[in-house]
Design a protein that fits this description.
Layout: H1 2-13, H2 34-38, H3 53-58, E1 67-72, H4 78-88, H5 92-110, E2 118-121, H6 126-132, H7 136-148, E3 156-158, H8 170-176, E4 181-183, E5 193-201, H9 205-216, E6 221-229
Helix pairs in contact: 4-5, 5-7
């Protein structure tokens, strides 16, 4: 009985609200309310993972296998608000929840089970991660790991501090990430099927740079998954 009183007290002092609509969350809603979960602008790229607008965008940058994204990025929409909260408002739980929900979607709708040996997140530079307090892509990887029952691990490192990609052209983005990433010295990924994840894909320059490092170090294949897919 005492535990119930404590929970009620904590809910009163520290209310749990949906970050999108502000409504109070039920106990079974970890982060987003059920209504907001159901109205996310889902991309459904996993239904045609080998042949969609993302794979077309990436051809020529890496040996493309599967490329997927959970939701579509729209300015001033729910996806932009979610990513802004995740990256700049200290809401790491949003990344994990997006991973959990997308992992369930991949299993239930796409039949993805046992497709990968390892989930790898695109790394942040240590200075940026220290400033933010976490890597949002690692939070996404953690949620996917739980739903897909596949381990996630930090095997890549970012060796150069790069400028923001937001206002750069496709060519500038490619140049900006050239020779930025590398495999951590003690890691062995030879023969592994890897799901490489990030928060958002626009031109694909960052993801492809990381994927090529993994493939060059012996990965059998690299599939890509992001929280959101944006325009050019």
């Amino acid at each position: 009985m005492r535990l119930f009183f404590l929970k009620d007290f904590l809910d009163l002092v520290f209310p749990r609200n949906c970050p999108l609509c502000g409504k109070s969350l039920f106990d079974f809603e970890p982060c987003l309310c059920t209504v907001c979960q159901g109205t996310l602008p889902r991309a459904n790229f996993h239904l045609r993972a080998f042949d969609n607008e993302l794979t077309s965008k990436l051809r020529g940058l890496m040996p493309v296998n599967r490329a997927m994204a959970f939701i579509r990025f729209t300015k001033k929409g729910k996806s932009q608000k979610l990513l802004h909260l995740l990256k700049y408002k200290n809401k790491p739980e949003i990344g994990e929840e997006m991973g959990r929900l997308y992992g369930l979607t991949l299993v239930q709708e796409g039949g993805y089970s046992g497709e990968w040996d390892l989930i790898v997140a695109v790394p942040l530079h240590p200075l940026k991660q220290k400033r933010r307090g976490y890597n949002q892509s690692e939070k996404f990887a953690k949620g996917l790991s739980i739903s897909l029952n596949i381990r996630s691990k930090e095997v890549l490192e970012r060796r150069k501090f790069t400028e923001t990609q937001t206002k750069k052209s496709r060519l500038q983005r490619l140049e900006n990430v050239d020779e930025v990433f590398d495999l951590k010295d003690s890691e062995n990924i030879n023969g592994l099927r890897i799901l490489l994840v990030d928060d958002v894909i626009t031109t694909g320059a960052t993801l492809c740079a990381c994927a090529n490092v993994l493939l060059a170090n012996g990965a059998k294949l690299v599939d890509l998954a992001t929280i959101a897919a944006g325009g050019q």
